[in-house]
Amino acid sequence: MLVLNCTKAAADFFTVTRQGKKQSPIEKPPTPAIGDTLYHDQPVSSWLIHAIKVQRKNVLIAMDVHTRYAMVFAGIKKGNWSEFANQWLERLFNNMQFRGEEFELCDEASFHSMLNEFARQHPRPHFCQRGDRSVQSHINDVAWHIENWAHETGHLPEHHEDAASFDEWLNSMTRSTKSYKNGFFPDEEMFLHWITRYGDLDSQEEPMIRQYFNQSRRMTIRSISDPEKIDEIQAMMEAVINEYNEGLASLPDNVIDIRQARANKQKG
Question: pTM of the entire structure?
Fold first, then answer.
């Protein structure tokens, strides 16, 4: 079950009056709580949608309730909820496919299988109006970054390449919740959630994927020239990595070839 929870601003954005008749996708919430992950034995994917105005243009922010993975959509016309749903699905699929191919965890055939599984679990989106303070605080932070981006560049990330790059940058930032006070990375959590729920990820492969993300972030740090910024980011990363590795066997501090690791496991 796919639940697109809408703030009042988003619900108002999706609601229009045409020829004297009110049209809206908003319905009664299909699950008791916004944080439900399972309802009537059905897996639930829950997102919070918010609407803002930037440079006099409509901007929609979609954030996964549990991983805090965010995507930004600019230029959608008021009331066009079907276009938003289509763009949301396309962007999510493209972003996850990019990661899957980057990590050599899926090819076109296996990703097509994941799309079919997604469609089986979530045959249609359910739009409803309700919110969550914790998720909203992170959405507000995303909104600040969008406004700053627009101020610095003079435009919004409307085109596919800009939007995908902006998503990637947003989701590489650490976030924290009551459950993960030391922080986590939304891109890492969403990809693991995606490939676990819709793919065939082996539980033994999760540490390898986390290590891959770890190495990718370390390479990014090396490209930064400001020593103080490096120290700040490094300290932040170490706190998150320590939490992730707690209770796990120590992992080698080198880049892991996931494809080779899978091959080795199959030979064994």
Answer: 0.81
